Amino acid sequence: MNNVVLCGFMGCGKSTVGKNLARKTGRKFIDMDMYIEKKQDMTVSEIFEKYGEQGFRDIEHEVCKELAGMSNLVVASGGGAFTFDRNVEVFKGVDTIVFIDVPLSVIKQRLKNDTRRPLLQRPDKDKVMAELYNKRLPIYRKAADVTVSGKSTPLKTAFAIIEAAKLKQ
After folding, report:
1. Strand 96-101 relative to strand 146-149: parallel, antiparallel, unpaired?
2. 77: which of 2, 47, 112, 119 is 20 to 30 A away, CA to CA?
3. 126: three-class secondary structure by DSSP
4. Which of 105, 95, 104, 106 is nearest to 146 (CA)?
5. DSSP bridge pairs for 99
6. How far apart are CA 127 and CA 77, in angstroms?
C-alpha cells in the first residue's frame, strides 16, 4: 500500500489530521520533523542552530527518500519540505500527496502562542507568516495529488482525505 503524504503550511493540522487518518485507515503515522529529531537526537531548532537551514533541508531530503521507500504510512511532512522540488519528486507518482488547505487567518489563530517553530520566533512573525504563506501556497497546490480543506475538525478533515484520495478504511 502506498503512503499518504500530507503537506501544507505550518499549523494546517498535518500531524493531528495525520494521526486520525492513520487510525482510520490502519496505517502507521510518522511526523517527519519528529522522525528527524529522533534520528538526529536533537530538536529541529537545534539542527537549524547547529547546521543552518541548508543543513536541515539536506537531512530532511534524506528522510523523504527513506520514507518514500517504505509503505502503508501516513506522513506529516514538515511545512517547508514540499517547497523543494527534490522532495516532491521523491514522493510524486509513488505516494498520494495531500495538501491540507487552511486560510492564513485560521493558521495565525492556531499558531498565536507557538514557541516551537524556528521560523516564528521573531517580532515580525505575522509579516513573515504572510510572506511565507503566499509564497508556499501555489507550491503546495502544484505538488498535491489531492487538496482538502483543513478548516474543520481533524477527524472531519481525515474523513475528507479518505473520500478525496479514495482510501480504504
Report:
1. parallel
2. 112
3. helix
4. 95
5. 7, 147
6. 23
* Dihedral of the alpha carbons of 36, 37, 42, 44, in degrees to the nearest 10: 80
Assigned C-alpha cell, 36: 528527524
| Model confidence pLDDT, tens digit, residues 5-28 | 999 998 899 999 999 999 999 999
H or E element in which residue 139 lies: helix 125-143
DSSP secondary structure string for all residues of 41-104: TS-HHHHHHHHHHHHHHHHHHHHHHHHHTS-SEEEE--TTGGGSHHHHHHHTTTSEEEEEE--H
In tens, the pLDDT along 150-165 reads 999 999 999 999 999 9
Burial class (CB in 10 A: 0-12, 13-18, 19+), 46: middle
**How many residues make up the chain in this entry?**
169
Q: 3-class SS at 133?
A: helix
